[in-house]
Amino acid sequence: MTWGEDGADVPGECTGVSVARRKVQLPAVQTYPGALLGMMAIRYPEQSEVVVNAGYAGESVLGMNTMPRFITVLDNHPADVVLLMEGANDLSNPDLSAVAAGLGGMIDYAKSHGWRVLLATIPPENPNGTCPTDRGTSADAVIAFNVLVRQLAVQESVALVDVERAFNGDLSLIGPDGLHPNAAGYRAIAGAFLAGIEQTVERH
Known about the structure:
Structural class: mainly alpha
Radius of gyration: 16 Å
CATH architecture: 3-Layer(aba) Sandwich
Largest sheet: 3 strands, parallel
Mean pLDDT: 88
CATH topology: Rossmann fold
Number of strands: 3
Order of helices and strands: HHEHEHEHH
Distance between the termini: 28 Å
């Protein structure tokens, strides 16, 4: 989601063949980190904010290289806040609690190095996407996973950014593949994160 894929095929039409689908990345300003940076520039005009887009397409929480990459990213980009939203590529895992535990490991590492963490639920999926290669097949798993994410935020005493709730069931914010948000959806994610920053960072 962070990388900024919009769920569309390169020609703008569905190919009907899943292996033929190519990832289409939105312009940086339309990804959620880019949209968030724009919002922060308006809210904090006297500061020089930086939002690092460290998203990696197709990554899963339990992937072999995920935790090492997470550590490398944080070590290379010292920051005040870590925005953590991951898990959409793990929804086929029958043990979603293990996925949540993986997120917990990321949170623990960030906290142990002094970073504040904003943990987000993931967006809803649309099981009725307009593409024959529809990837929004885990709508029910999204709901179950986000329950665990909310619980994890409490357990880890970190701020929750409830992206799923911010979408409020509006599936028009999801792209044609049923999985990735469109530009409006990414802006909704950015708005949810900005609200989280306002409610946590500004008060400390």
